[in-house]
């Protein structure tokens, strides 16, 4: 894990929105609404830092990832790389920036072209950016990348179907490294892999971060994996970040009810701690991003919800109750009634039989 929290921000995201229009009619179409997939996201990524983004399926994590590499154009907002807003760059300028921001996709089975050899897949970035590697040097470069990600360089002429899922993801990582980027956006890079392989790929990403001086935006829904690799963690719900802080602040001192509910569902290996822990069970379904509740968007499932929650949108900021303290709970949380709640029991608490304050059914 890189300590990038104090480093200079190389990526700044402000007011990021992505709305997909809902149309009605066949001949005369008119817009009747919009799916607000991403609805106001702000964060910074420091040099050498890993920012984890977690949340339920459909919360907008992958849409954010696609906008960071310009596979999706934002409806509004800015994405600044070293001071330049990449959403406003010309195609030529954007091509140069894309060398420094690469992506590792979720599914290693569909993200690799089955008709191309591994050498062609990893070497394709050199065809788009020929200034990075001369033609006579590309085969050697590809073989070096295969070796770096733990694959036999002699596999360069093989096809994707000849590899396992974990090996394919390593090929995808090698492709992402080809242009020596500064930032890699990893969109659930281990969710399609066996549990036994997930740890190998996560450890590989950690080792590569040190070797290549990388910054990661690591998107996942597995909270334990995100904690293992991340310096800071942002929790998303219905298109917005509702809580963000260091891994210790989020996992040991969560203040937002949604974060607390997510953490209460994390499996606990200690049987004693598991026995004394109460789950926070959320009632109701996740609202549609086409019909987001007024005020706090989590209020329809929150046990703390009051009238104020329906009227006022909570700001993502340090809660007033913690602003003048040195508590680890002093981090940004978008809740009118934020309070610290110990959810994940530690080893000592498991032995003592105490697992926090309990949950809400």
TrEMBL record:
Origin superkingdom: Bacteria
Keyword Nucleotide-binding: yes
Alphabetical UniProt keywords: ATP-binding, Nucleotide-binding, Transport
Annotated InterPro entries: AAA+_ATPase, ABC_transp_ATP-bind, ABC_transporter-like_ATP-bd, ABC_transporter-like_CS, Oligopep_ABC_C, P-loop_NTPase
Record bears the keyword Nucleotide-binding: yes
ABC transporter domain sequence ranges: 11-263
Annotated GO MF terms: ATP binding
UniProt xrefs under Pfam families: ABC_tran (PF00005), oligo_HPY (PF08352)
NCBIfam families the record matches: oligo_HPY, PRK11308.1
Protein family: Belongs to the ABC transporter superfamily.
The protein, known as: Dipeptide ABC transporter ATP-binding protein
Organism: Streptomyces solicathayae
